[in-house]
Design a protein that fits this description.
This protein is mainly beta. The protein has a single domain, classed as 6 Propeller (Neuraminidase). Helices cover 12% and strands 39% of the residues. The chain has four helices and 24 strands. The strands form five sheets. Strands 2-3-4-5-1-24-23-22 form an eight-stranded mixed β-sheet, with no helix packed on it. Strands 10, 11, 12, 13, 14 and 15 form a six-stranded mixed β-sheet that branches. Strands 6-7-8-9 form a four-stranded antiparallel β-sheet, with no helix packed on it. Strand 19 and strand 20 form a beta hairpin. The two termini are 37 Å apart. This is Esterase-like activity of phytase family protein. Pfam families: Phytase-like (PF13449). Keywords: Signal.
Length: 326
């Protein structure tokens, strides 16, 4: 009995090996020019147009002109008011404030999404806050109940600098938001609009988990903390971009439970596409019926083939579509 218990404990501490999920097929690859700060960190398909953000730029978001192989990022300037108090502890906030002059981007925009009315929503990792950018009028921070951060931290999330909110998705009606906590621990949370305040009716935390995950063998990297890099909502399901595992997973929007995953490692990690990095670089996700857009934040890394710009990949949807059960 003792040896069996020790065996179970050992298994719980071991890295999770990547499951063999079906491979998505790469259709096209698009370097992105014109992003002032580079560091593409989110994607959203809004009324047929792709929008993105950089975690180095606080005063603009970008529309992507897709008419040529190399996409041009067209900046939309925004006047951002001072961020609200979110309930993050002093130490985490001060780390972000100290590092921002060195890295650029005090707000650290990490994800973008939009509703059917055309409002865009950008999540600030540094402040655990969400900025609404309407089609007309001035941007404004959502009024979010501080219970969101309290519940997240009580579940082991948002405890570490630069490991806060990394992805965002909103429903078409614009009254429910999902947020992805990046790592150590990673998790999914949701808030709902109640008059002018977004609150935790029924609880904000959908799931929280820790542990290590083994990277695909092409990276030749040791196991890293499980992570989420972005979120997308499509056909009533949540889709998570899991950077270290190089996969997309479909999850239930009420619990975050995995229903099915797809790998994109085979085409993303060919020899010419490798970076001199032990970490995954996929940071952004958007889906439609025909496929997935995956954005690569290369930071200061240069690819093996010499490409220095951010990249967006287009992967075909799996056979049977994103709702396929088997």
């Amino acid at each position: 009995m003792r040896s069996a218990l020790l065996g179970l404990l050992w298994l719980g501490a071991a890295p999770v090996m990547a499951n063999t999920w079906p491979e998505l097929v790469l259709q096209s690859e698009h370097p992105v020019a014109g992003m002032r700060g580079g560091n593409l960190s989110g994607l959203a398909l809004c009324s047929g147009e792709l929008w993105t953000v950089s975690d180095r730029d606080d005063d603009q978001i970008y529309r992507l002109d897709q008419r040529t192989t190399v996409w041009q990022a067209e900046a939309l300037s925004i006047e951002v008011p001072p961020p609200p108090e979110s309930g993050l502890p002093w130490g985490v906030r001060m780390m972000g404030k100290a590092i921002s002059p060195l890295r650029g981007g005090a707000l650290d925009f990490e994800g973008i999404t939009c509703d059917d009315a055309g409002n865009r929503y950008v999540v600030s990792e540094a402040h655990a806050a969400v900025l609404q950018v309407p089609l007309t009028g001035a941007p404004a921070w959502l009024k979010i109940d501080p219970t969101l951060v309290r519940q997240a931290r009580a579940s082991g999330m948002l405890l570490h600098f630069n490991a806060l909110f990394e992805g965002i998705a909103i429903n078409p009606q614009g009254n429910q938001i999902w947020l992805a906590a990046e790592r150590e621990r990673r998790g999914l949370l949701t808030i709902r609009k109640k008059q002018s305040v977004w609150d935790c009716a029924g609880g904000c935390v959908l799931m929280s988990e820790g542990g290590l995950e083994q990277a695909p063998p092409q990276l030749k990297a040791k196991a890293q903390q499980k992570d989420f890099a972005d979120l997308a909502l499509f056909e009533g399901k949540l889709f998570t971009l899991e950077r270290m595992a190089y996969r997309i997973c479909r999850r239930t929007p009420d619990t975050g439970e995995i229903e099915r995953c797809w790998s994109f490692a085979n085409d993303a990690l060919t020899e010419g596409r490798l970076y001199n990095s032990a970490y995954g670089n996929a940071e952004a996700l958007s889906l439609d019926a025909k496929g997935a857009w995956i954005g690569v934040d290369n930071g200061n890394h240069v690819r093996a083939d010499g490409e220095k710009r951010p990249i967006v990949w287009r992967f075909a949807a799996p056979q049977g579509g994103w709702s396929v059960k088997s």
